[in-house]
Design brief:
Elements: E1 2-3, H1 8-16, H2 37-48, H3 58-72, E2 78-87, E3 93-102, E4 110-116, H4 137-154, E5 163-169, H5 189-195, H6 197-200, E6 208-213, H7 226-246, E7 260-261, H8 263-269, E8 274-278, H9 298-313
Parallel strand pairs: 4-5, 4-6, 6-8
Antiparallel strand pairs: 1-7, 2-3, 3-5
The structure holds zinc ion.
Length: 315
């Protein structure tokens, strides 16, 4: 993901416009404790074995296989991959795959729950070893773990009124440097998905989308992000309202001071109300060799995963 400085007037306006819902939102009876932070930690640990997981690396395909194998153990109905080749500036083709896992594909009402599974190629911000392979426990294995554990839990719960499409995007870290500090960064997987939206949604666009990135850190602090409020303010309020009820210390109502570009950006630009759930304050470990499992906390993962589960069951 990448930060973009934004007009302070717009940010100030949005700060005023965020009286978030309290915890009293109507609740379906859902066994939230089914969502297990230790299982999510194990899912992160498994992905770290494949490092580096950047495009073109053997660990990239191993990650795809791992996600598909984990999904096969759930009640997800259909898993497809959207495969294409991207030719970068150096002319070298990169093979990319978005993974799409659909629950209740016959349900005309659709919602996207997404993350990215590619990791940056090297820990370029590491003060000691900037060429070392990037472990990426928080960026990017944590988002994959949240989706996979949620897929397992959804398989144990009554059917939702809306069909969920889980999307594991490829290429979020961009082509040129494979995430290693390219100033002209752009995501690849989510814009490709949007360019081929009719492959997945031939008639009607999904109603909304939520994207997870960097969601395992200890003492997680999740703030609404300004571009998400622009795109999907009602959904952000709903999600944070649920989160404050479940894990009050993890959900902060003050917005981040600048917008963050991530896979929700392309979805929002395609007219799908979309928002990002991220704890972007991850110093001094962000994109260093210290982005490792010991920086993650099962309680943070549970705060996010149980909130997502609750949110999906809300009317
Ligand atoms: Zn990321």
């Amino acid at each position: 993901m990448k930060t973009i400085r934004f007009c302070s007037f717009v940010v100030a306006t949005m700060l005023l416009a965020v009286p978030l819902l309290g915890a009293s939102t109507a609740r379906a009876e859902v066994q939230l404790e089914l969502w297990d932070g230790q299982r999510a930690m194990a899912l992160i640990a498994e992905q770290l074995q494949f490092t580096p997981r950047s495009m073109g690396a053997p660990g990239h395909q191993q990650t795809v296989d791992f996600i598909k194998a984990a999904l096969a153990k759930t009640s997800v109905d259909v898993v497809t991959t959207q495969d294409w080749s991207y030719r970068g500036d150096d002319g070298k083709p990169l093979a990319l795959s978005n993974i799409v896992a659909r629950f209740q594909p016959q349900n005309p009402r659709r919602m996207i729950v997404a993350t990215h599974y590619d990791s940056i190629v090297k820990a370029y911000r590491d003060p000691k070893d900037p060429d070392a392979p990037m472990p990426g426990a928080n960026n990017s294995a944590s988002g994959v773990a949240v989706l996979l554990e949620t897929a397992r839990v959804l398989s144990l719960l009554p059917k939702l009124p809306i069909g969920i499409d889980m999307i594991f995007f490829d290429g979020e870290e961009g082509p040129k440097s494979l995430g290693a500090g390219d100033p002209d960064w752009k995501a690849l997987g989510s814009p490709h998905f949007v360019d081929h939206l009719k492959d997945t949604y031939p008639t009607t666009k999904p109603e909304k989308a939520v994207v997870f990135d960097m969601v395992c850190a200890k003492n997680i602090q999740l703030k609404p992000e300004p571009s998400s409020l622009m795109s999907a303010m009602a959904e952000v309020k709903k999600f944070w309202g649920a989160g404050i009820g479940i894990a009050p210390g993890a959900f902060v109502t003050k917005t981040t001071t600048y917008p963050i570009s991530d896979d929700h950006t392309a979805l929002a630009e395609a007219g799908i109300p979309s928002f990002l759930v991220i704890d972007f304050d991850y110093e001094p470990w962000f994109n260093t060799t210290d982005d490792t499992l010991d920086k993650c906390d099962p309680r943070s993962l549970e705060a996010v995963g149980r909130t997502l589960t609750r949110y999906l069951t809300l009317p």
